[in-house]
Amino acid sequence: MEKRKLKKGKLGNYIVLGLLICGFAQVAVVNVSAGNYADERYTFSFGNEGDWSTTHERIKEDNTSVYMKCVSSDLVSNAYDAYAWGYDEDTNNYFCSSDKYTFSEGDIKKMTNYIYENGGEWALIRANLNEGSGYTTGTFTGLWSPDSI
Q1: Residues 8-29: pLDDT tens digits?
Q2: Amino acid 136: pLDDT
Q3: pLDDT surpassing 80 at residue 109
């Protein structure tokens, strides 16, 4: 009689252990998913030296990098400098939250930033023409997202 009770107790322990493992696996899968990572088109047009161009604001859902891909440029050796900016609705404040990233046609970069960590609910990219490119005007198109995978 005692052997049967012992076996039933072990079986119960294995069932509980299996359920715990399944529960932890589901939590791990949920935490891995990224937020607002769908690519969206942008166009930057610079008409005069010193002009700034921006994407529109998008919701920033996590602390991942901002993603940017420069698809085309009207001039082959032209480049622009981009910065990830955040917007905090509570304080109605825009703030720069990254180092400078230089893009030319074909460049793909994940821009490290601290928008989410500094209370920014929205992200955007501000850019100006790269002074070293030698041009004073230019048009660029590409894709970007406020979060990345």
Answers
A1: 556 556 665 566 565 544 444 4
A2: 83
A3: yes
What pLDDT is recorded for position 134?
83
pLDDT over threshold 80, residue 127: yes
State the residue range of the domain holding 85. 40-145
28 and 49 inside one domain = no
DSSP letters of the chain?
-HHHHHHHHHHHHHHHHHHHHHHHHHHHHHHH--SS---EEEEEEE-STT-EEEPPPEE--SSSPEEEEEEEESSTT--EEEEEEEEETTTTEEEE-S--EEE-TT-EEEE---TTTTT-SEEEEEEEE-GGG--S-EEEEEEEESS--
CA pseudo-torsion sign 128, 131, 133, 137: positive
44 in the same domain as 16: no
For the chain, how many structural domains are there in total?
2
Please report the sign of the dihedral spanned by the C-alpha atoms of residue 46, residue 48, residue 49, residue 53: negative
Please determine, for residue 97, whether its predicted confidence score (pLDDT) is greater than 60: yes
Average pLDDT rounded to a whole number, residues 32-37 = 72
Statement to judge: residues 82 and 44 lie in one domain: yes
Please tell me whether residues 78 and 22 are part of one structural domain: no
